[in-house]
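User: Second chain of the day. Same drill as before.
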Amino acid sequence: FGGGGFQASQPEVVEAEATIDFRDAILGTTLALGAGGDTIKVKIPEGIGEGQKIRVARRGAPALQITVHDRPHPNCERKGDDSHGERPVTSGEAIRGAEVDAPTIHGPVRMRIPPGTQAGRTMRLTGKGVKRKNGCGDQYCRIQIVAPPAAPADALDQIEAAYAENPRANLRTEL
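Assistant: Same format as last time:
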């Protein structure tokens, strides 16, 4: 077995992880990553999903395989190619109807709130979600009615008088 040298082989792939902002996962970005003393730029494609991997070939070095994680957004959640969030409106906007600004990953849009909108109703903003091969997913906004901290008693009496029946009239008294 005489005197031949032994060389450790380099790994074929070096594993790495990167965490990016929600917006960057949807729209794409470029990251500068340190790999073995070198800084390399990695293009993150738009619409990348949580846990997806990107493989980057490097000349004279093992390939780099990056597992991408997206940082949760405080007001929006991704479900496939769609984004979901809540949109607060005032009592008056819900009762009378209104147009309100709605932030989307692609920029703000005007969202129509129909008269008589109930809390929990979900509005769809078509094409304002994650880009995919044939267009974009949608953004869904769940309406949240925010009551004022105080209101004149006579205004509340007028609102209460507008109910045709008790909204709890059809609920069972036992579970």
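The CA atoms of residues 80 and 130 lie 8 Å apart.

User: Great, on to the next one.
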